[in-house]
Amino acid sequence: MWAVLCGTLGVAYAVSRSLSAPSGQQVLVGAISLRLPDGFAIDRNPQADLQAHDAKMRRILLVLLLPSGRPDLGLDDERSPIDFRGINQTGSLTLQKRVLSTPQGDAAQLTFTASAVLPTLDQQIVLELQVNEDADDDAQSELMADQVILRKIANSVTLTGGPPTRRMRDHSNDSVVLLGSIPSRGAKL
Q: Does 109 map to a domain?
């Protein structure tokens, strides 16, 4: 009987763990840490604290750390709650749909935006997942899958105790550190 109970608890833990955070690489951005989904690669973008994309360049993730007093980037759309479990906050999730004109025809782009306040840092985190829809995709199932990706990333956000990032126009001194990598002597963390 104890074996069945322990086995059930083990399976429940494994399932909840797999649903709560992506299994990709963990990165540091300023005073936070988050885990990217498998297959995402980091890009350089001076407009964001972190940018990453999936292998097909279908999904682009932007991470912004903004001063707390700043408005939520003009997000007026209908909001729903989203958990940032690692920082014990509930934020807001919005979805915007745009139609982009391209030489191949019109294409839809979905933008999922999740934001939450980081009260101990007097900042807010904004996670933006831009998704380029394919015409042959099952729109409803893809919509749910993309939302799950962003929810997992939000769940993986934790505070590291490092120095907060100050957003300015010049990002030449910003750094992204892959956890597990060993910085060279004198490297900025």
A: yes
| 18 pLDDT higher than 70 | no
Please state the rounded mean pLDDT for residues 12-40. Answer: 75
Q: Is 7 among the domain residues?
A: yes
CA distance 153 to 36: 7
Give the strands of the sheet with 41-43, arranged side by side: 41-43, 50-53, 59-67, 123-132, 105-118, 89-102, 80-84
Q: Which residue has the tokens 């904004």?
A: 126
How do beta strands 50-53 and 41-43 pair?
A: antiparallel
What range does the domain containing 129 cover?
2-178
Token pair 């909001």: residue:
79
Written as one letter, the residue type at 17 is R
Q: Are 49 and 65 in contact (CB under 8 A)?
A: yes
Segment among 26-40, 49-63, 65-79, 149-163 with least mean pLDDT:
65-79
End-to-end CA distance of the chain: 50
* Helices (runs of H) and strands (runs of E) counted in the chain: 2, 11
Please state the pTM of the whole predicted model: 0.71
